[in-house]
């Protein structure tokens, strides 16, 4: 009687485990678990106390230091932004100890990149690139347009603070781009949207209709706008142009897809 009760209890436990998606963790590869990437460790639902895992505790990521920033290159900075976005899309962001990061960065910052992106609430750039406190400078404005203040901020980020990469990241279904293609006029917004309108000329004439109803056109203008801003950065800042020509910094564009969370960085 006791044996059959035990068997019943075991069967019930297994049935609950299967029903709740609680599975025996696969052993993580040794080399993989030695890294700090949480993606490497098997997912272990908290509702499975009877399935212990030997996966070691994950070491939190830390903000860049003067030494780690100096060791980075424009290429490695871009690689980290790409890796960060992949972690975000996969739902495996790095573990961070934010209060500790606040303390660690209180007396100085050594961000490895400066990113210009849109004001849009659905594109919080540090989150979608899985970057933490002290990792990147972030400038955000509707339509990720350029102005003298943002250009000056980029000069500070690269020339004074040692950032290795400038990234300009637009996004799909952008309201600012829609406003620009429809020639919306509203207070101070009118001037901002006027900065985007030259990008419309870069989109082939056969892309029709040329208004916000055509999302393909809107997204093509967004991408053209990113390329235009990249060109303006080079043309309007002798300081950044010189750093780019010497290979001290890199310049990259990209588009964030609101429906997938993915940033597609331009090849050139
Ligand atoms: Zn936008």
Please give the structural blueprint.
Layout lengths: L1 H18 L10 H4 L32 H5 L3 H17 L7 H8 L7 E5 L7 H4 L7 E5 L7 H13 L4 E7 L3 H7 L7 H8 L18 H22 L1 H8 L4 E7 L6 E3 L3
Parallel strand pairs: 1-2, 1-3, 3-4
Antiparallel strand pairs: 4-5
Helix pairs in contact: 8-9, 10-11
Write a structural description.
With 268 residues, the protein is an alpha/beta fold. The protein folds into two domains: 1-59, no CATH class; 66-265, 3-Layer(aba) Sandwich (Beta-carbonic Anhydrase, Chain A), CATH 3.40.1050. It has eleven helices and five strands, in the order αααααβαβαβααααββ. It has helices at 2-19, 30-33, 66-70, 74-90, 98-105, 125-128, 148-160, 175-181, 189-196, 215-236, 238-245; strands at 113-117, 136-140, 165-171, 250-256, 263-265. Strands 2-1-3-4-5 form a five-stranded mixed sheet, sandwiched between helices. α6 (125-128) links the parallel β1 (113-117) and β2. α8 packs across α9 and α10 (215-236) crosses α11. The longest helix is centred in the C-terminal third of the chain and has 22 residues, at 215-236. The N and C termini lie far apart (73 Å). Zinc ion is lined by residues 118, 120, 143, 171, 174-176.
